[in-house]
Amino acid sequence: MGAHSKFFDPRSIPLRPKSGGNLWSSLMRLSKGLMFFALLGAIFVLFLPDIRRVQVLQKEKQENDRKIASEVSLYQKNKSDFERLRVDRTYLEQVARDTLNLGKPGETIFRFDSYRDTEKSIVRR
């Protein structure tokens, strides 16, 4: 068993990669990379419920914005109707007759259903 034996020659043992580094430094680099990705995965898992909550809140905000826009348009319509009722006497009389079924004293009111209303009232067989 001499110093030139192939069995004891460290260069003959395949512990070194072809790039010239040894196996342990390669394993350390690999383990550091895996630890880095494991840490990123853990951070992602920790923040995933918050990310989902933010998405739900954004959807709720969009729905609320849509509701607010519809309520604002309804408010504008009611405001213009109120102003028209306050200023325009003929419009006030028209609304009183059509909506509230009011009439002048001694006046007889005849109402006819529209064609579409009678169509809905017919029973389908």
Query: What is the number of E strands?
Result: 0
Pick out the low-confidence regions.
none
Tally of alpha and pi helices:
3
> Which structural class do you get from the secondary structure elements?
mainly alpha
What spatial form do the alpha-carbon principal axes imply? rod-shaped
Oligomeric state of the chains in view? single chain
Q: What is the makeup of the main sheet?
A: none
The helix fraction, in percent, is 55-70%
Euclidean distance between termini CA atoms: 110 Å
| Rg, alpha carbons | 42 Å
Average pLDDT metric: 83
Strand content: under 5%
Q: What sequence of helices (H) and strands (E) makes up the elements?
A: HHH
Please, how many domains? Answer: 1
Summary, kept brief:
With 125 residues, the chain is mainly α. The protein has three helices and no strands. The model has no long low-confidence stretch (mean pLDDT 83).
Task: Describe what you observe in this structure.
With 125 residues, the protein is mainly alpha-helical. The chain has one domain (13-104). Helix content is 66%, strand content 0%. It has three helices and no strands. The chain is rod-shaped and about 125 Å long.
What distinguishing features does this structure have?
single chain; about 120 residues; mainly alpha; 3 helices; about 65% helix
Write the layout of secondary structure elements.
Elements (H helix, E strand, L loop, with lengths): L22 H65 L1 H10 L16 H7 L4
